[in-house]
Design brief:
The chain has helices at about 65-75, 80-95, 155-160, 185-195, 205-215, 220-235, and strands at about 25-40, 45-55, 100-115, 120-135, 140-155, 165-180, 195-200, 240-250, 255-265. The chain has about 270 residues and is an alpha+beta fold.
């Protein structure tokens, strides 16, 4: 028996739901997907992202069209930056006929860094999270989060010791809700510039001497780290709201030191 030229299959998701309960978020999450990124220098970097893509579902609709989330990704393979992420989000809302939704991407990015003395270059990895979302009847919001590994050196330890001071690696997390486009590299540089010293993937002996002395000459408590970074973020007109967290993995304790500060920029600093 010949197969029919066309199959007419019922679309159960599109049928009415009588429970009259709207769903805030429905979609896919935990999706691992290859991603091409445009960095601040315009170069393409390849990575793998963990994605979630969700939309709001009206109370009268039984279900969303799960396959369309993947179709949207497959149709947009161009290297991604902030502006292209916004267009991807707009396409998702349009394809799924939704008034609200969210796309979240979490991925490692790599930055080539030159050692401070020898100039030898190596890659350092950072964790990045991008979130674009919209609530019903509101504007689209874009958020960016980065985690920067840095060095911190204790001012008290340096002051009371005859020689040396305890220092450790710290993780600084900056989260920002943006008014306009800002690259992950820009937030990472703020974190590194305000630390006792930044860290590098590869160092030669003259470089090790430099970073050790740099940290010793620039001691900071965990409180200093978040306050100094907060002052930088408060002067950034592209940022509407921000949060800074610092976790210092203490070298002389079996616990971490932690501080967190958040705020919002109500007035454009450039105005």
């Amino acid at each position: 028996m010949n197969a029919p030229e066309r199959f007419f299959l019922p679309d159960i998701q599109a049928t009415a739901d009588l429970r009259r309960l709207a769903i805030d978020k429905v979609g896919v999450r935990g999706l691992r997907y290859p991603l091409a990124l445009l960095d601040a220098a315009g170069k393409v970097q390849h990575t793998v992202a963990q994605l979630s893509m969700t939309v709001g579902l009206p109370s009268e609709q039984k279900g969303t069209h799960m396959s369309r989330f993947l179709e949207i990704l497959e149709q947009r393979r161009a290297p991604l930056n902030i502006n292209r992420l916004l267009r991807l989000f707009e396409d998702m809302l349009l394809r799924l006929d939704a008034d609200s939704g969210e796309i979240e991407l979490a991925f490692p990015c790599f930055v080539s860094k030159a050692a401070p003395v020898s100039g030898v270059e190596s890659l350092l990895d950072y964790d990045v999270r991008m979130i674009v979302g919209k609530r019903p009847g509101q504007r689209v919001e874009l958020s960016l989060e980065v985690v920067a590994p840095v060095t911190s050196l204790c001012p008290c330890s340096r002051e009371i010791s005859d020689y040396g001071a305890h220092n450790q690696r710290s993780h600084i997390t900056i989260g920002a809700r943006l008014r306009s486009g800002m690259s992950p590299e820009e937030l990472l540089r703020i974190a590194e510039e305000e630390a006792s010293c930044e860290v590098f993937g590869l160092l030669k002996r003259p470089d090790e001497k430099w970073v050790t002395e740099r940290a010793y000459d620039n001691p900071k408590f965990v409180e200093d780290l978040v306050r100094d970074i907060a002052l930088r973020l408060m002067r950034e007109p592209r940022i509407a709201e921000w949060t800074v967290k610092s976790e210092n993995f203490e070298s002389i304790h079996n616990h971490s030191a932690y501080a967190e500060i958040s705020g919002h920029n109500t007035v454009d600093p450039a105005a």
